Amino acid sequence: MGALVIALAVLCLLPVIFRWPMTGILAWFWIGLMNPHRLVYGALNVMPFAAIIGGATLIAWLAGKEKKRIPATPITLLLLLIAIWITWTTYNASMPDFAWPKWEQTLKILLMTAVTIPLMAKRERIHILIWVTVLSLGYYGFKGGLFTLVTGGEAHVWGPPRSFIGDNNALAMALTMLLPLLRYLQLQTESRLLRICLIIGMVLIVFSIIGSQSRGAFLAVVSMASFMILKSRNRFSLGLAAIVVASIAIWFVPDSWVDRMETIQTYEEDSSAMERIMAWRFSYEIAKKRPLTGGGFGVYYDKDLYFSIIPEAKTTHNAHSIYFEIIGQHGFIGFVLFMGLLVATWRCFSKIIKLTKSHPQLAWAKDLSALCQVSLIAYMVGGAFQNLAFFDFYFLFVSLAAVTLLVIQTELETSAEPTAKISGRSSLMATAGRTTPPRRIVRPVSARTETPKS
Question: Which of 5, 176, 218, 282 is the Cys-Cys partner for 378 at CB 3.0 to 4.6 Å?
């Protein structure tokens, strides 16, 4: 029954997408982030709903009246270069049967990231996109938080199977990145009831992250919370809230969670941690052997190659790190491009903060950019232990940086236009040496009166 509801929902969305292409972006992120079809059984469980919606969006965009121009910026240029480079590394991949399907999936993400920029270039559309994101991923955070409270945190919280966030660690990192977006919505919402609901949502997500028992997410939360408090407009109240939530959470943390977090200090005694270190070593050695192309997508599944480099390994492992994932699969040049995109996205948010500092009407963009940087902190720290270099949720932030900058630049140019016209006219007259002639002051002449003759 659930599968039919999802299929009908997608079917009903198609004519809407052809009428308003921007709804295709919203639907694409809904399917990509929430993966509702993965929660049901049957043939529809493996239907390529995201590809169907993405294809319909591209056709509607190209055939419709929406702007077709994707602005040339460092972000869009790097997206193009990454797309070209992963095509080259896939062509030279050591495991082509695995590499080409992964290349196809990644290329779709890069393409939809680029298309999001012109289609969502309005403040209202950005706001709706964030709401769709929060509700799509927040579903697992709200449900997982309640599950953790009911079970006392003894069982792990998992995401939808066969998705980016199916693993407990991946879900925890995604939820950590999601928290700042809830904070943004809380700052922008006037309804007191809705603000309370968002606070409850944030608390439940924190408990869901605890329930995942992810060590990488724990480090990401600590790093993100510190940075978030520094970037917030209300540092004191937010810091106090963090202390209160942490104090309450301690009572719900099971001994198994404490024991797992303590292994961060004694990683050399943990087999899982040591396997990751061996996978990192393999990635680096592959990049040294093939610095231009790396091993391509799925190089870790080449058992002969893996054991020839790491003979002491008991089995093969993927990189478990966005950084070593890129180095091993796409070489050092791929790593430079990947880090370049991350830096360009960060700098784009910083530029927005700088441009909007003296414009109160653009405070929303300043808040969004600062909080998106907080999410990037979570991605950079938590991603050091995750195989999520081409995570569609991360690329949402890439598109948000580019589209928000486009919106505020347009608004600033529009607001400055009348002033520019006036100052331009004055400057032209001064250059031509024209001066305004003094006006003649005309005084009224009194009526003449004649003296009557006597």
Answer: 176
Rounded (10°) angle between helices 255-262 and 215-231: 90
Q: What are phi and psi of 352, to 5 degrees?
A: -60, -45
Burial class (CB in 10 A: 0-12, 13-18, 19+), 365: buried
CA distance 88 to 85: 5
Closest C-alpha among 405, 395, 406 to residue 110: 395
Task: Report the C-alpha dihedral over residues 294, 297, 303, 307, rounded to 10 degrees.
Answer: 30
CB atoms within 10 A of CB 149: 16
DSSP secondary structure letter of residue 448? P
Residues in contact with 401: Cβ distance below 8 Å, sequence separation at least 6, in sequence order:
75, 345, 348, 349, 352, 369, 372
453: left (phi over 0), alpha (psi -120 to 50) or beta: beta
Q: What's the pLDDT band for 263 if we cut at 50, 70, 90? A: low
Is residue 354 exposed (0-12), middle (13-18) or buried (19+ Cβ within 10 Å)? exposed
How far is residue 219 from each of residues 174, 278, 321, 375, measured CA to CA in Å?
13, 21, 14, 13
Tokens of 153: 């945190």
pLDDT at 420 over 70: no
**Are the beta carbons of 43 and 6 closer than 8 angstroms?**
no
pLDDT digits (tens, 9 = 90+) for 123-163: 999 999 999 999 999 999 898 888 888 877 666 777 788 88
CA distance 166 to 175: 12
CA angle 413, 121, 18 (to 5 degrees): 140
Position 275: which residue type? E
Structure tokens at 257: 């969670």
Q: Whole-angstrom Cα distance, residue 366 to residue 359? A: 9
Measured distance CA(74)–CA(372) in Å, rounded: 18
> From CA 371, how far away is CA 228, in angstroms rounded?
7
How far is 129 from 138, CA to CA, in rounded Å? 13
Cα separation, 338 vs 402, whole angstroms? 16
Query: DSSP letter at 452?
Result: P
CA distance 17 to 1: 24
Distance CA 368, CA 357 (A): 13
Residue 249: strand, helix, or coil: helix
Q: What pLDDT sits at residue 48?
A: 82
